[in-house]
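Dear H.,

Thanks for agreeing to be a second pair of eyes. The structure we're designing against is below in token form, covering all 210 positions.
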């Protein structure tokens, strides 16, 4: 009757142990992925621009501020490890068909913002947006007196922003810092407290639930 060598038996045991370890690791990864959630964030918006006609997204004005309390507050659910907040940052354009028809419609916006906690600044997102014609607008916003019941103010351009939020942080604030506007007849800079300088939309949070 054939005998199994000691070295062969040892190799088999090692192989089994490795397979068990691989399966355990794969199961842990799957369970962690299943427990990780991606959902619309709770957003406390001090100035709602309105709802998009084409997208049904809620657009929220970014206001210039000096404190965390001046900004758009995004609530982070209780989470284990870092969470991730994503949103779209837009320019804020007031559409004028008359200016476009007269060849004076071009505008370039450079919007500078900060995303912060009460302790630190996590990021300083910016968006550069250019307007030439109505086709450049991301969406139109309902609730205005314009044709089709839309507002003159509309989101322009779209920069996808991704913020890593440390463990233990339950709120972040999106605050406006400065707006630079380049028109055909010159350049202006705006940074007065409370002024709307940009727009955000589609705020999502990804986190590992506790």
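And this is the sequence the design step returned. I haven't edited it by hand at all.
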């Amino acid at each position: 009757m054939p005998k199994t060598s000691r070295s062969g038996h040892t190799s088999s045991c090692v192989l089994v142990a490795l397979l068990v370890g691989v399966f355990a690791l794969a199961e842990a990864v799957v369970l962690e992925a299943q427990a990780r959630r991606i959902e619309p964030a709770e957003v406390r918006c001090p100035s709602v621009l309105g709802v998009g006609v084409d997208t049904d997204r809620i657009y929220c004005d970014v206001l210039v501020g000096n404190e965390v309390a001046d900004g758009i507050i995004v609530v982070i659910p209780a989470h284990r490890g870092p969470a991730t907040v994503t949103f779209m940052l837009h320019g804020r354009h007031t559409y004028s068909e008359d200016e476009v028809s007269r060849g004076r419609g071009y505008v370039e916006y450079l919007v500078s913002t900060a995303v912060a906690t009460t302790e630190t600044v996590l990021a300083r997102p910016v968006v550069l947006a250019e307007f030439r014609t109505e086709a450049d607008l991301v969406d139109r916003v309902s609730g205005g007196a314009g044709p089709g019941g839309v507002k003159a103010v509309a989101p322009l351009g779209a920069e996808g922003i991704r913020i890593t939020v440390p463990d233990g942080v339950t709120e972040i604030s999106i605050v406006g810092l400065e707006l630079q506007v380049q028109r055909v007849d010159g350049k202006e800079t705006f940074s007065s407290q409370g002024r709307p300088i940009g727009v955000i939309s589609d705020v999502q949070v990804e986190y590992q639930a506790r």
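Two observations from my side: Helices lie at 6-35, 97-101. The chain has a mean pLDDT of 89.

Warmly,
E.
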